[in-house]
Amino acid sequence: MSEPLRREDPQRLGRYRLIERLGQGDMGTVYLGQSEQGQDVVVRVMNPGLARNPHFRELLRQEVAAARGVAPFRIAPVLDASLDGHPLYVVTEYIVGPTLDQAVANHGPLPQSELDHLAVGVATALAAVHDAGILHRDLKPSSVLLSGTGPRVTGYGIARAHAQAGAADSGPAVATPGYQAPEALAGGPVTSASDVFSWGCVVAFAGTGRHPFPGGGFPEVAYRVANEAPRLEGLSPHLLPLVRQALDKDPLARPSVPQLLQGLGDRPPWTEEGPTPPPPPSTPFIPADDKGPEGRSRSAPLIGIGAFVVILAMVTTIAVVALSRGDAQAPAGGRALQHSASTVPATPDASRTPSTPPRTGPPAESSPDAGDVDPRFLGRWTGLITHHASKDSKFSALITITGGKLTQVVGESDYSSMGSHGTLKHVSATRTRLVVEERIQQGHGCEDVVLITLTYRQPRALKYEYELTNTNGAGMLARA
Fold first, then answer.
1. Rg of the Cα trace of the chain?
2. Dihedral angle over CA of 217, 223, 225, 227, nearest 10
3. Which of 86, 144, 174, 218 has the smallest number of CB atoms closer than 10 Å to its CB?
4. Which residue in 128, 25, 41 sits closest to 78, CA to CA?
5. Which pLDDT does position 391 carry in this prediction?
6. Confidence band (pLDDT; 50, 70, 90) for 159?
7. 144 has which bridge partners?
8. How far apart are CA 265 and CA 430, in angstroms?
9. CA distances in angstroms from 387 to 38, 392, 396, listed in the order given
10. pLDDT higher than threshold 80 for residue 262
11. Model confidence over 276-294: pLDDT tens digits?
């Protein structure tokens, strides 16, 4: 819960006026702040002991730079940071809404429709984080916010600096062990598969209202994570197979994040087909900066059951502003296409680590047609899209789908009323649903990144839905 500023708290940091405390954790203190333009923000101030460590400062600089490149899909984006002076602080968008653990404590497990949206939304956020070449490392219910525009994930991109450089200065801190993968608790390599395990834990908690690995303390919980099956009684049957595979003890047996999205799209209630088996597992990736000289993770040493390694991670705390799903702040004039915190450079950064490295085994799809765009989506589609923040704000859209496989460019978009156009990259597909990442070309060498969902309604109609940071919209498209 939030509390007033204390006597020792700063009143202002750079361009941000501090309003109240949101919480305090091992990495530092979290404040609600306000920019000079009146925008509410979250300001995370690092502990002085960590800030004095040169290695921590350099790792934090690397992580923040990568976090700024995360596409704004279901995350709280990094807006600003002060990494040279004292104190060190990172500024992120302030999300209105309760955390998942607060919502479950107050209202019980999520209804099925909300649980479906949460499972897809959190997986989409992980895909964006991994695509920037970083890991979340501490995904848990308190780092998932239920905003008015859907679930949003916070707390990504900073935990590595704490884990690798902070222990000596700040003392031991324990991340929520029931949401850490067994390899992380044992000091093994932390990979994208570790985040997938945490995703399974979060979805299980949201759907049942219980921790999947309950226990009375850290040793008991960590032992159950490493040795016992998760408690999944009461979880929706159509989510159960995918969650169970995500919680496999073997990282190589878990699906990748793109396969999670594919598996979620291949099941009811979004398709005409019945439930399908979970997708096959794939090789997880390890960020380049996590690999030691022989390819081993720079994690804590491997230890026995009686003495578990301390997992250091950022404690994300956000105050409950409203349990009701209010409208988030958004521009009233339509889709936010101006250059802002949600835009990324159009020129790719060659130093960034891709989220899908070359595989040594067989491809994820077992048949040549798996993941292809269904032929019914092919062609030109046109219609009017309504911006949800302003019902009177509409814009025309022309979508051309040419077809292709997962991760390929499968079409283009044109918005004549706004003088912009973009490319469409295949994220996931079923017979009746196609999700694409749209990159809209902007001036000044930048582009806007938007997530679009196209749902097949009838031979001559598609439902068009888009999501951008703090805003969304929808409309119907007809064959042109």
1. 22
2. -160
3. 86
4. 41
5. 56
6. low
7. 153
8. 6
9. 23, 8, 11
10. yes
11. 444 444 556 555 444 433 3
Among 327, 343, 452, CA closest to 390: 327
* Structure-token match 């996590």, residue found: 290
Q: 3-state SS string over the chain?
A: CCEECCCCCCCEECCEEEEEEEEECCCEEEEEEECCCCCEEEEEEECHHHHCCHHHHHHHHHHHHHHCCCCCCCECCEEEEECCCCCCEEEEECCCCCEHHHHHHHHCCCCHHHHHHHHHHHHHHHHHHHHCCCCCCCCCHHHEEEECCEEEECCCCCHHHHHHHCHHHHCCCCCCHHHCCHHHHCCCCCCHHHHHHHHHHHHHHHHHCCCCCCCCCHHHHHHHHHHCCCCCCCCCCCCHHHHHHHCCCCHHHCCCHHHHHHHHHCCCCCCCCCCCCCCCCCCCCCCHHHECCCCCECCCCCCCCCCCCCCCCCCCCCCCCCCCCCCCCCCCCCCCCCCCCCEEECCCCCCCCCCCCCCCCCCCCCCCCCCCCCHHHCEEEEEEEEECCCCCCEEEEEEEECCCCCCCEEEEEEECCCCEEEEEEEEEECCCEEEEEEEEECCCCEEEEEEEEEEEEECCEEEEEEEECCEEEEEEEEEC
Q: Write down the residue that tokens 């002085």 correspond to.
A: 48
With tokens 């077992």, the residue in question is: 366
Query: Which one of the listed residues 131, 138, 266, 448 is annotated catalytic?
Result: 138
Domains along the sequence of the chain with CATH: 98-290 (1.10.510.10), 343-358+369-479 (2.40.128)
pLDDT band at 367 (very low <50, low <70, confident <90, very high): very low
- Please count the CA atoms within 13 angstroms of the CA of 466 that sit on its side-chain side: 29
Look at residue 234 in the predicted model and tell me its pLDDT. Answer: 93
Please give the model's pTM, rounded to 2 decimal places: 0.57
Cis peptide before 269 (omega within 30 of 0): yes
Which tokens belong to 315?
């404690």
Q: Is the pLDDT of residue 370 over 70?
A: no
Task: Kindly indicate the confidence band of residue 412, based on its pLDDT and cuts at 50, 70 and 90.
Answer: very high
Residue showing tokens 């850490």: 180
Cα three-residue angle 87-89-93, rounded to 5 degrees: 155
Known catalytic residue at 138: yes
Contacts of residue 202, defined as CB under 8 A and 6 or more positions apart, other chains included, come to: 100, 118, 122, 139, 140, 141, 144, 179
Q: Which amino acid is at 377?
A: F
CA neighbours closer than 13 Å in the CB half-sphere of residue 118:
30
